[in-house]
């Protein structure tokens, strides 16, 4: 049996790695200013058939009417399908008193069963949810599922079908810069406010509150402010092409004309899982890790130039079952380095974003070839991907891959 190499690091390096391990084991990332009928589990090719995609009634061909008339028609057709979401949360203060917190956001009705699509950060940590679709009627709502990695969530209300105006879903893969867009939401509590603009950019990289990258965000200059989060970004035919999520606000102010929406095609992929399972069933290795490049910049000498140093491995996870090793302290006081992941399926891995992009192309049950550096040599280990064990998720609510 090959003997595991123990690295004699400096006191500073030992303290640094120990601090990294302790920090990652302690907790997660903190707080961000931020479709026809019931969905059934189907293959990716069949999924889109479950969503209403036809342009809504009452919206003329934009080429046959004035821009002003198009704004009026889209608003009249789609505003009734935009939800005004209010949240209430409670927490205990230092003295044991209960404090009440209130928030608000927006959402879109996506089927006649009462499912509403919004941002995860709108409903996160809320104990009570209510929805208003216009008028005096307020519906209690319940959380169906949430996905912090894409900042999307689905809530549900029990409302008569005639009260539910479904917002049809467009195709965010067919957008072009300069295309007209409309945003409807509830900025600063002003219900169902309309703003217009254009698509200013595509494929913008943004990050969710857990620091996970959301690829391909839609950038717009349509005014988006606090309270717009979770509301629809619509094309000129009234179809949702994005979910308004973030703004660039220097100094923490309001809109400066740089807003970002999660592409609707991401929602098409994750919503069926959220409705059926309450979460997105993503394959993960089950490791906590640090970029070799980042550690080298901090003065830690490591045997490779690039890769991910495994700090620890989740018991029962894909990585644990494949025998991957985390970093630990040796009996003589030195640091026994964990495995360093250098590639997955031939794709170079230098940081967590690289690892996520590779895993996002796979499904639970797939097998990937993971190249690691261990005991001064490279080796490739096949790993069958699975979701994280639920007890591990509950015990360690942190960013694991």
Put the structure in a nutshell.
This protein is 19% helix and 33% strand. It has helices spanning 11-26, 44-47, 67-78, 120-123, 264-277, 292-297, 318-322, 352-359, 390-395, and strands spanning 82-92, 98-109, 115-119, 128-132, 138-147, 152-157, 180-185, 193-207, 213-220, 232-234, 240-247, 259-263, 287-291, 308-313, 328-329, 335-336, 340-344, 347-348, 367-374, 377-384.
Write the layout of secondary structure elements.
Layout: H1 11-26, H2 44-47, H3 67-78, E1 82-92, E2 98-109, E3 115-119, H4 120-123, E4 128-132, E5 138-147, E6 152-157, E7 180-185, E8 193-207, E9 213-220, E10 232-234, E11 240-247, E12 259-263, H5 264-277, E13 287-291, H6 292-297, E14 308-313, H7 318-322, E15 328-329, E16 335-336, E17 340-344, E18 347-348, H8 352-359, E19 367-374, E20 377-384, H9 390-395
Antiparallel strand pairs: 1-2, 1-4, 2-3, 3-6, 4-5, 5-6, 7-8, 7-10, 8-9, 9-12, 10-11, 11-12, 13-14, 14-17, 15-16, 17-18, 17-19, 19-20
Q: Could you describe the 3D structure shown?
A:
With 401 residues, the protein is α+β, with helices and mostly antiparallel strands. 19% of the residues lie in helices and 33% in strands. The protein has a 6-stranded antiparallel β-barrel with strand order 1-2-3-6-5-4. A 6-stranded antiparallel beta barrel has the order 7-8-9-12-11-10. Strands 13, 14, 17, 18, 19 and 20 form a 6-stranded antiparallel β-sheet that branches. The chain is elongated. The protein starts with 10 loop residues before the first helix and ends in a 6-residue tail after the last helix.
């Amino acid at each position: 049996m090959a003997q595991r190499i123990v690295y004699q690091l400096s006191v500073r390096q030992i303290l640094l790695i120990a601090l990294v391990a302790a920090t990652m084991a302690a907790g997660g990332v903190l707080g961000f200013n931020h479709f026809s009928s019931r969905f059934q589990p189907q293959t990716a090719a069949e999924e889109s058939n479950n969503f209403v995609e036809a342009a809504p009634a009452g919206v003329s061909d934009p080429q046959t009417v004035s821009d002003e008339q198009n704004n009026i028609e889209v608003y009249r057709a789609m505003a009734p399908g935009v939800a005004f979401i209010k949240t209430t949360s409670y927490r205990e203060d230092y003295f044991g008193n209960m404090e009440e917190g209130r928030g608000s956001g927006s959402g879109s009705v996506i089927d006649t069963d009462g499912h509403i699509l919004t941002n995860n950060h709108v409903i996160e940590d809320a104990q009570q949810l209510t929805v208003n679709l216009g008028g005096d009627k307020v519906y209690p709502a319940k959380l169906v599922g949430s996905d912090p990695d894409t900042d999307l969530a689905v809530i549900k209300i029990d409302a008569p079908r005639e009260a539910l105006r479904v917002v049809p879903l467009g195709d965010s893969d067919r957008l072009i810069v300069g295309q007209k867009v409309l945003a409807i939401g509830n900025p600063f509590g002003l219900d169902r406010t309309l703003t217009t603009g254009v698509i200013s950019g595509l494929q913008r990289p943004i990050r969710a509150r857990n620091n996970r990258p959301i690829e391909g965000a839609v950038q717009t200059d349509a005014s988006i402010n606090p309270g717009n989060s979770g509301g629809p970004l619509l094309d000129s035919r009234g179809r949702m092409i994005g979910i308004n999520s973030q703004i660039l606000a220097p100094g923490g102010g309001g809109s400066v004309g740089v807003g970002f929406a999660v592409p609707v095609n991401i929602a098409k992929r994750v919503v069926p899982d959220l409705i059926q399972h309450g979460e997105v069933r993503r394959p993960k290795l089950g490791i906590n890790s640090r970029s070799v490049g980042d550690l080298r910049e901090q003065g830690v000498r490591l045997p490779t130039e690039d890769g991910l140093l495994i700090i620890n491995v989740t018991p029962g996870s894909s990585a644990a079952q494949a025998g991957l090793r985390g970093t630990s302290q040796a009996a003589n006081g030195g640091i026994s380095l964990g495995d360093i992941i250098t590639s997955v399926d031939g794709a170079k891995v230098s940081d967590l974003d690289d690892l996520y992009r590779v895993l996002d192309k796979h499904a639970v049950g797939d097998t990937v070839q993971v190249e690691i550096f261990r005991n001064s040599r490279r080796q490739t280990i096949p790993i069958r991907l699975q979701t994280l064990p639920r007890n591990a998720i509950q015990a360690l609510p942190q960013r694991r891959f």
